[in-house]
Amino acid sequence: MHKMKNIFNTIIKFRYLLALLILILGVASDFNFSSIPAWEQYVPQINNATSKILGQTRYIRTDEWVVQTPMYMAQVMDKDHFPVYNKNIGLSGQNMILNYNAPTRDITVLSKPFNWGFLLLGKGYGLSWYWFSKLLLYLLLSYEMCFIITKGNKGISVLGSLWITFSPAVQWWFMQHIGDLVLYFEAIIVTYYYFLKNSNNTLRRILLAFAFALSCIGFALVLYPAVQVPLFYLGIIFMIVLFIDLKKDLILEKKDVLIIILSFAFIFFNLIHFYLISKDSIKILLNTTYPGKRVSVGGNLSFFALNTFLINVLLPFKNSTYLNNCEVSSFYNFLIPLIFCIPVLIKKKVKDLKLGIALIIFILFQAFYMLWGIPVFLSKITLFSYVTEQRLLAIYSLTSLYLSIWALNLLYKKRYFNFIFCAVISLITTIIYYFSIFYSPFKTYVSPKYYYIILLIFFVLSFLLLYGKKNYFIGLMAILVLISGITVNPLTKGVNSIYNNNLSKNIVSISKKSPNANWISIDDTNGTMGAFIYANGAKCLNGVNFYPDLAEWKLLDKTGSQNNIYNRYSHFSFSLTDKKTYFTLVAPDSTHVFINTKDIKKLKIKFILSKNNLDSYSDSSIKFSKIYSDKVNKYSIYKLIY
To answer: What pLDDT is stored for residue 451 in this prediction?
Structure first.
């Protein structure tokens, strides 16, 4: 046991060096955890090779392999190399700082360390850097976050590191808003805490202030208020409580005040710089039909949804029948048993309950908002008008996770509750969980026997938590979290899923000869192949618009009568028609454009990618000339001659 403890302490002591070693090995091996092997279903690799090494390709993660990864690749492939405005996406181009934080040659990239690999190492190694650096930063920051919450408990902090990093909510949304914002949030709190604590080390304070500034910039630039707003309030709670804890020993000299002023000046400089180069794009984004103009007041969430984490262990192995796997992913937590216990702890006058009480008050507010809602005026002044119930659910469960970590550290030190009390509360909790499952859409998701196993596991975990059996709780919880999280994303090698095929090579070749030519893909779901086109360095007018390319669509809709359809964040797809050009809304984030061949010239389209034969569309005003046909994937490239 003593030897194991020494090994554990050694790993903790050298955790940053160990993380650096893993990063080097991961990047050198060209590994990542992307689901880009999904592209092989559309465009098979040469010799039917596959980039997937291990695990399951997550086709449901289209936000990753259709949207974000191709946009990152488009930045690498662009002839201007990482421009702020990528002219290859849409007619007018897209602001790539807004576009899912894509890598850009701009000062704001300093706040996105997981993007540095693309600028330095290119496509494949850059993607490896992204996944490994972000995963390792999650582990390190979550450890520090829990170390702060527990005031130095290494064992619980290691559990917390795994618990947060491999939570289904993080793993299913790893490359998107939740994955980014939770990481930046923890970086802000960790750097804030250690800045206050390291009062005798000026150099360390300078570095921490700089890291704090970068974290704040990164947090702000994600531009997803549905998650940013509740995390902002959660951050204020942590900052106030931590300041109260540290104020007795806090020393602030003139040089420290100067460091603080300079760090905030750096934050404001970056944000003002971003605004000045992006204000036109931001204006368009804020005036979209979706999601820009929505005003949320809450009140539309069912009670069972608060406990969706109960099915999270099943998600890697069976697709959800209620919403998709990403939407129902959450953070494991033990809020319900702790709700019964906090009042007892207050009554017993247990010391140092500040953080726990503050967290549970915020949790109850979030629950009230989601279940019953608040008045419009209150929603607007608190900025919760930007917050939807489904997105708040993730932060509600994250807050409850932090509460659970705090409680685990408190309850193992002293036996506050007897065996009977713990058993009864755990049983009541399990009954509530039972109703959350069997009186909800989850009822038929899997066989009841699996639910009974899950209920038993959470009964045991609740009991172990309340009864203070820390080590048993850590062991069982770690197993549950790892099963739920490690199995989500596949192990993939390189980016050959996009580039190791003849279609890719031909698009690259043609686009080099005609770098300013406009492309579209037609008759493909959600314009998926449009993303493939710009990922290969060609200028494509469809695919994904983070904000609408109004200049492009108004060429087809001069009166603006269909503005409500295309004025949105959307996947855009095309089909040819002999009727008048029109737009249809397939889903809130999917628009299909039926374009008359006479209008093709308005968009100056030069090349079309299609699986269908387009020869019949040729007439006296336009000729569809097939210049490439792929026998493997059946795609053809047509050159348009006017």
So the answer is: 97
